[in-house]
Each structure stands twice: as structure tokens, then as C-alpha cells.
């Protein structure tokens, strides 16, 4: 997370002349009304905008607070952002003090440009287990969300492409599970890591705990395998590059307005006794997080639906600002409650992450690049000239998924016996958001991430100013069960590091990890150094029709309202034990099909 940031080189890819990308509210044709107004251009919103505008008779407006992704080098060259450096295109949030982190607050990045967090994320692409999708079907009472029924949407999203170095990928994935005709480009790493063969050796030496998994996107995730990533051979593939590509942006019935910060949605009367919300209020004044603005707001109406896709933080905040949420919390801030629903903003869930660092005996790590600006500039020039070299990769080298054999804290949180409790990620260098990069040395990181936490947190309003960040409390490691899972994961990593496969490679653990030799010291290491892997979900959860809790029906329509739907990370009723971007794209694909069906369009 230490490569310097290259905001706009502006010289890398030709910027298409795009007729329907608008930068200011006044540029939108005044007379136009829209069938659908979509709020937020991330994983969910870009899919909706694309699919709903396939029918030339359907008009769609997509509103995004951030700028365009075009020409943003950090959102193009895969290795550059390394997770955190893209602050120019971020909301810059922090969490409330986290008791599970010994009271620390942590940075909480969220992408703020076309593509949303898919333009700034680390690009791991995992579908989640078949048990996970079958649990979504059970929890919502909608068989449409089952693994079997979601297959067609998974394949619509995926376009498997060659790796940058063109190597033979036989033995690194199973092509029979994949599509080469979908939208988001997916590929395997395109530049070798010095330890690739040691990973394969590890899966043989420790085959009982860490078998080789040819394809973790087959529905069965356990074991170690090659990472599939949203990389179009050499460049990031995002919701913006895929679903808002020039050929779609040129549709006359799709309008995309950037720099449009939505401040709330407005009631537009009642439909069969339920409040309708078919108006969106926004401003194109450029207001930073924590700022204020009295600039005039603009209102735009949808004739059919307003669809919120502002993500797990943004969507909850917009609902609360609009009077949809817990009445007590809203009235304390002087916001009139239109629909009292205590589930809005509740149950925020995220994956805690810990960077376990090791000194290694190699000078082929990316530390050579992160610690040396001259070499970094050389590698950027190589990427620019040939689309090859170390920068075609994300920081992720291999992924592994595992369960803890015994759990003294019960009940189990996973979707089933072949769904992981935690993940390990191998990275060919020093990858941490909580430990500063040393000035020299060569490193490997084996990240542990808790993927099936029991803790639940919340998003609440701190003020009624739409430009203030809400209180974000993911309640990281907020239960003894979660701490136990993280301790088990670190213990498993120490076993891997001690395997013969790593004998002449790993020199020793980094100081903080080396000191974690007693149960108390291990706990303290985790509390001091853990952070987030950036996966918040669940703040406007789907629940069965008629349930006494939840925010949306299983089709994303907001309960007890009319004309309002949500399709983004906030509607997942449980966090998937996987990197979530693929799941959110799939929500978008099925969500769009449900919208088309509901309106016959
Ligand atoms: C640093 C980082 C690394 C990650 N790494 C991975 C990974 O490797 N693999 C993976 O699967 N997932 C990863 N994720 C998570 C993944 O990107 C998200 O889960 C996914 O993008 C969520 O989709 P979404 O549509 O819910 O929200 P987003 O993609 O975040 O999109 C929400 C959009 O709404 C806009 N918006 C918000 N509020 C407003 C408003 N008031 N008005 C107008 N627009 C608004 C935002 O600017 C944004 O464009 C990562 C995330 C981050 C931040
Ligand atoms: C890739 O490798 C496999 C197995 O070694 C082999 O069968 C296949 O022919 C190779 N493909 C190409 C295109 O070389
Ligand atoms: C790939 O998956 C298919 C379908 O499940 C299976 O029949 C085949 O054996 C798998 N191939 C390999 C090499 O495992
Ligand atoms: C939007 O809808 C509201 C409520 O129905 C109405 O008062 C307003 O005039 C509409 N605005 C536009 C721009 O159509
Ligand atoms: C986040 O911080 C960066 C760097 O300071 C800044 O450029 C950007 O505008 C900030 N984003 C917001 C939404 O305030
Ligand atoms: C949180 O989620 C659980 C199910 O996981 C549900 O029973 C509970 O009602 C939710 N809480 C709120 C406030 O919605
Ligand atoms: C790598 O390290 C070895 C010895 O540790 C050294 O001989 C060699 O020159 C180094 N290579 C580079 C490219 O720095
Ligand atoms: C930094 O990289 C340049 C270019 O590859 C190289 O010449 C130089 O020796 C490197 N500096 C250090 C301190 O390794
Ligand atoms: C990228 O390549 C273009 C020509 O294709 C060149 O003009 C530009 O200087 C290069 N930029 C960098 C950073 O190497
Ligand atoms: C919440 O608002 C208060 C002022 O009302 C401010 O001091 C505090 O920093 C805010 N908290 C966050 C997390 O923004």
C-alpha cells in the first residue's frame, strides 16, 4: 500500500468522445424525464444502468458523486493503488473506535468515481460458495438466489481472458465453470511471483489442511489456488470499463451525470396507501466529506423507480437522511420520519484483516518497486509501452480458504460445512495499512481475513448534514468467537511458514508477529494491527416478504414503500465468505432482470 499515487497521467488510454456523460446538472436536457433514476455507479449501479438501457424505449439516468474513471491511471494499472492510495477518488471515511481493535478507529475507504469501489479495489474475483447462495435463497425465501438459479447471471457477468504474459493457464483454473462472453474481464496473474512453485509444494506438503483447489469459483472454495481477478489481461476491469464502456455510453436513452452528490430522496405522494419515493435531490457543488454547502439542490423524478446503489454506507445514509429509518434516531436530529424501520443501518458486517509480514530471501519482491521511485517509474513506462511487467498484477498472488476444526464459542456462522471461516492471501511484498513500510528489506505478507464473523455493527447518522460522514461501526472482532477465528488463522499461517516448502525463502517473521509468542501477546498483536479488507455489507438487508425485520423484499423493493428499490452491497442479509464484488455484480444482473420483468421493459 505504498506505491505513490499517479492521479492522472492522461496519456495512457484514448479518452473517447462520450455524448451522454454529463458533468453539470444544467447540461442535462431539461425536458427529459426518466423511467429509472439510479443513484451510485459502483458494482450494483453500473450493471443496472447498462441492462435497463438495453431497451432503447427505456430512459435511464445514472447519478454518481465522483468524477469519471477515464484517464485515471490509478484505476487502470492494476498494481498501482494497492488498496489504499487512491485517496483523490475516495470518500475518506473513518470508523468509530472499535473495541475489538483495542479502541482504535481505522480508515474506511470507499471508491468515489465511475465504477465506485470496483475502480479502486484489489480486484480479487470470487463467486462465494454454493452453500452461500443456497443460504441467501433460504434467508430470503426466494429460490431465485440459489447457486443453481444464479448460474446464468454469474456467466453474464464474466468474460474470462488471457493473462498478460500469455502463459498456459491449464492447471490454474477449470475452464468448464467459466464464460468468455460476459462483461467484466477476469484473468489469472500475468507476471510470475518468486514463490509460485513453493505454494504448489505447500499444497502437497500440507495437503490435509491446505489442498490445492483448481478452481475456487466452482462452488467449492476450500484449499489454496490461483486468484481470478477483474483484470482485462493488463488493465483493471471495473463496473465502469465493462458496463459503461463507450458502446453503452453512446446509447441516447442512457444519461450519466458525474459530480452529482445525492442528498436525499423525496416522497412523491402515496401509491395504494404506501409512501412513494420517485424524486431524487442532488447537487453538483463540489463538497468534500465533512464540508457544507448551501448551493441549490436539483430534483429529478423517475416515472417508474428510483434505484439506490450507493453501497453499504452510502445507501443507508441516503435512506436515513430521507426519513426512512429508526424514528428515535431520526427525530433526535430533527429529521421527520416517513417510514419507521429500525433495520435501516443495522447489521453492518465486514471482514477483519491482519497483515502477517515475513522477511524473505529474495530480491524479486515488489518492495524493490515500492521503495524505489526510479524503478517504479521504469515499470510504469514498461507497462505503458508494452502492457507487460510486474504492474500487470494486483498485490494478490494466491488465495486460500479454510475452516477451523473446533469452535468452542458456537453457533457456527458459515453457510455450511464446506464454506470457509477465514481466508489467507499471499502477497509478494510488504502489504499493510497499519505498519509503516520500512526503508529497506524484502518481504512476503500472508494476510489473514476473517470471512464469517459473528459480530454485527451499524451505520447511523452523526448529523443531518448530507456531506458529513455517518458513524460507521463495523464492530470488528466484536465477539470472542471472531477473535478465536482470527487467532486460529494466524496460528495456521505460522504452520505454513514453518513448512519445508518455505525453508530457504522465509527468513523470519516481522517484529510484531515474532513477538506474538503467547496467547496474550497474540491477542494484543491482532488488536493492535488488524484492519479491514474493505467489504461492508448488510445495512439494508433483504428479508422474506412479511418478515418483521429487514429493509427490502427479496427483489430489492423497499418494504412498505412504492417506486423505490435497492441493488447493492447493503441488501445482502449475511456477509459472503468471499470477496464480495462478484456477488454484488450478480445482484445487479438478477436485479435488472427482476426490474425488467416487473415493468415489462
Ligand atoms: C480498497 C478496496 C479494496 C477492495 N478489494 C476487493 C477485492 O479485491 N475483491 C472484491 O470482491 N471486493 C473488493 N472490495 C469491495 C468491493 O469493491 C465492493 O464490495 C463493491 O464495489 C460494492 O459494490 P456497491 O455497488 O455496493 O458499492 P460501490 O462499488 O462502492 O459503489 C457505490 C457508488 O455510489 C456512489 N455514491 C455513494 N453515495 C453517493 C451519493 N450520496 N450520491 C451519489 N453517489 C453516491 C459512490 O461514489 C460509488 O461510486 C474492495 C473495496 C475497497 C474499497
Ligand atoms: C497447455 O498445457 C496443457 C497441459 O500441459 C496442454 O495439454 C495444452 O495443449 C497446452 N495448451 C497450449 C495452447 O499450448
Ligand atoms: C472441470 O470441471 C468439470 C465439471 O465439473 C469436471 O467434469 C472436470 O473433471 C474438471 N476438470 C478438472 C481438470 O478437474
Ligand atoms: C417531481 O415530482 C414532484 C412530486 O410529484 C412534483 O411536484 C415535481 O414538479 C416533479 N418535478 C419535475 C422536475 O418533474
Ligand atoms: C479525500 O481526500 C483526498 C486527498 O486529500 C481529496 O483529494 C478528496 O477530495 C477527498 N474526498 C472527499 C470526498 O472529500
Ligand atoms: C439483524 O439481522 C438478524 C438476522 O441475521 C435479524 O434477526 C435482526 O432482526 C436484524 N436486526 C435488525 C435491527 O434489523
Ligand atoms: C539479488 O541479490 C543477490 C544476492 O543477495 C545479488 O547478488 C543480486 O545482484 C541481486 N539482484 C538484483 C537484481 O538486485
Ligand atoms: C532503484 O532502481 C534503479 C533503476 O532500476 C536502480 O538503478 C537503482 O540501483 C535502485 N536503487 C536501489 C537503492 O536499489
Ligand atoms: C506512455 O506512452 C506514450 C506513447 O505511447 C508516451 O507519450 C508517454 O510519455 C508514456 N508515458 C510514460 C509515463 O511512460
Ligand atoms: C460527529 O459530529 C460531531 C459534531 O457534531 C463531530 O465533532 C464529530 O467529529 C463527528 N464524528 C464523525 C465520526 O464524523
TrEMBL record:
Coiled-coil segments on the chain, per record: none
The protein's required cofactor(s) are namely: FAD
Annotated Gene3D superfamilies:
FAD/NAD(P)-binding domain, Glucose Oxidase, domain 3
Q: Which is one Pfam family of this protein?
A: GMC_oxred_C
Entries under InterPro entries matching the protein: FAD/NAD-bd_sf, GMC_OxRdtase, GMC_OxRdtase_N, GMC_OxRtase_C
The Glucose-methanol-choline oxidoreductase C-terminal domain covers which part of the protein? 453-588
Q: Where's the Glucose-methanol-choline oxidoreductase N-terminal domain?
A: 34-352
Which residues hold FAD? 262, 580-581
Q: Does the keyword Oxidoreductase apply?
A: yes
Keyword Signal included in the entry's annotation: yes
GO molecular function terms listed in the Swiss-Prot or TrEMBL record? flavin adenine dinucleotide binding; oxidoreductase activity, acting on CH-OH group of donors
Which residues does UniProt mark as catalytic? Answer: 535, 579
Q: Which SUPFAM superfamilies match?
A: FAD-linked reductases, C-terminal domain, FAD/NAD(P)-binding domain
**What keyword terms does UniProt attach to this protein?**
FAD, Flavoprotein, Glycoprotein, Oxidoreductase, Signal
Record's signal peptide: 1-19
What PANTHER family does UniProt report for this protein, alphabetically? GLUCOSE-METHANOL-CHOLINE GMC OXIDOREDUCTASE (PTHR11552), GLUCOSE-METHANOL-CHOLINE OXIDOREDUCTASE N-TERMINAL DOMAIN-CONTAINING PROTEIN (PTHR11552:SF201)
Q: Which family does it belong to?
A: Belongs to the GMC oxidoreductase family.
The protein, known as: Choline dehydrogenase, mitochondrial
Q: Species name for this entry?
A: Mycena sanguinolenta
Amino acid at each position: 500500500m505504498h506505491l505513490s499515487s499517479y492521479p492522472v497521467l492522461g496519456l495512457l488510454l484514448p479518452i473517447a468522445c462520450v455524448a451522454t456523460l454529463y458533468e453539470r446538472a444544467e447540461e442535462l436536457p431539461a425536458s427529459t424525464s426518466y423511467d429509472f433514476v439510479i443513484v451510485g455507479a459502483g458494482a450494483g449501479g453500473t450493471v443496472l444502468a447498462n441492462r435497463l438501457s438495453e431497451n432503447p424505449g427505456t430512459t435511464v439516468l445514472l447519478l454518481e458523486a465522483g468524477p469519471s474513471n477515464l484517464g485515471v491511471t490509478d484505476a487502470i494499472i492494476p498494481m498501482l493503488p494497492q488498496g489504499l492510495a487512491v485517496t483523490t477518488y475516495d470518500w475518506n471515511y473513518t470508523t468509530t473506535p472499535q473495541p475489538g481493535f483495542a479502541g482504535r478507529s481505522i480508515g474506511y475507504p470507499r471508491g468515489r468515481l465511475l465504477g465506485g469501489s470496483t475502480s479502486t479495489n484489489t480486484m480479487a474475483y470470487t463467486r462465494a460458495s454454493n452453500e452461500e447462495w443456497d443460504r441467501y435463497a433460504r434467508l430470503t425465501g426466494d429460490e431465485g438466489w440459489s447457486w443453481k438459479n444464479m448460474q446464468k447471471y454469474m456467466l453474464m457477468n464474466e468474460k474470462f481472458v488471457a493473462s498478460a504474459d500469455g502463459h498456459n493457464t491449464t492447471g490454474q483454473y477449470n475452464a468448464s465453470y467459466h464464460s468468455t462472453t460476459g462483461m467484466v474481464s477476469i484473468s489469472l496473474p500475468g507476471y510470475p511471483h518468486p514463490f509460485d512453485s513453493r505454494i504448489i509444494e505447500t499444497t502437497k506438503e500440507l495437503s490435509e489442511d491446505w489442498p490445492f483447489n483448481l478452481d475456487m469459483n466452482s462452488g467449492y472454495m476450500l484449499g489454496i489456488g490461483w486468484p481470478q481477478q477483474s483484470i482485462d489481461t493488463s488493465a483493471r476491469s471495473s463496473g465502469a470499463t465493462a458496463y459503461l464502456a463507450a458502446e453503452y455510453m453512446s446509447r441516447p436513452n442512457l444519461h450519466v451525470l458525474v459530480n452529482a452528490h445525492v442528498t436525499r430522496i423525496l416522497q412523491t405522494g402515496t401509491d395504494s396507501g404506501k409512501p412513494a419515493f420517485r424524486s431524487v435531490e442532488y447537487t453538483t457543488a463540489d463538497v468534500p466529506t465533512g464540508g457544507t454547502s448551501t448551493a441549490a439542490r436539483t430534483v429529478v423524478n423517475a416515472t417508474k423507480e428510483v434505484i439506490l446503489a450507493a453501497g453499504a454506507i452510502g445507501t443507508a445514509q441516503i435512506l436515513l437522511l430521507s426519513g426512512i429509518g429508526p424514528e428515535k434516531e431520526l427525530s433526535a436530529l430533527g429529521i421527520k420520519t416517513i417510514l419507521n424501520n429500525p433495520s435501516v443501518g443495522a447489521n453492518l458486517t465486514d471482514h477483519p484483516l491482519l497483515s502477517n509480514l515475513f522477511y524473505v530471501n529474495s530480491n524479486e519482491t515488489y518492495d524493490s518497486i515500492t521503495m524505489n521511485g526510479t524503478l517504479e517509474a521504469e515499470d510504469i513506462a514498461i507497462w505503458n509501452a508494452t502492457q507487460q511487467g510486474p504492474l500487470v498484477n494486483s498485490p494478490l498472488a494466491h488465495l486460500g480458504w479454510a475452516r477451523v476444526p473446533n469452535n468452542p464459542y458456537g453457533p457456527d456462522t458459515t453457510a455450511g460445512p464446506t464454506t470457509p471461516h477465514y481466508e489467507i492471501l499471499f502477497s509478494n511484498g510488504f502489504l499493510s495499512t497499519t505498519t509503516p513500510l520500512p526503508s529497506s528489506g524484502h518481504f512476503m505478507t500472508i494476510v489473514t481475513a476473517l470471512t464469517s464473523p459473528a459480530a454485527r455493527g451499524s451505520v447511523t447518522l452523526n448529523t443531518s448534514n448530507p456531506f458529513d460522514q455517518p458513524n460507521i461501526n463495523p464492530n470488528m472482532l466484536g465477539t470472542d468467537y471472531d477473535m478465536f477465528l482470527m487467532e486460529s488463522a494466524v496460528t495456521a499461517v505460522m504452520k505454513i511458514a514453518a513448512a519445508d516448502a518455505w525453508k530457504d525463502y522465509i527468513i523470519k517473521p516481522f517484529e510484531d508477529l515474532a513477538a506474538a509468542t503467547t496467547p496474550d501477546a497474540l491477542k494484543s498483536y491482532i488488536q493492535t494491527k488488524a484492519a479491514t479488507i474493505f467489504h461492508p455489507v448488510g445495512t439494508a438487508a433483504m428479508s422474506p416478504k412479511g418478515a418483521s425485520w429487514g429493509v427490502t423484499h427479496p427483489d430489492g423493493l423497499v418494504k412498505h414503500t412504492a417506486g423505490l428499490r435497492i441493488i447493492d452491497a447493503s441488501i445482502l442479509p449475511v456477509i459472503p465468505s468471499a470477496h464480495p464484488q462478484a456477488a454484488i455484480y450478480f445482484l445487479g444482473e438478477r436485479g435488472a432482470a427482476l426490474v425488467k420483468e416487473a415493468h415489462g421493459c
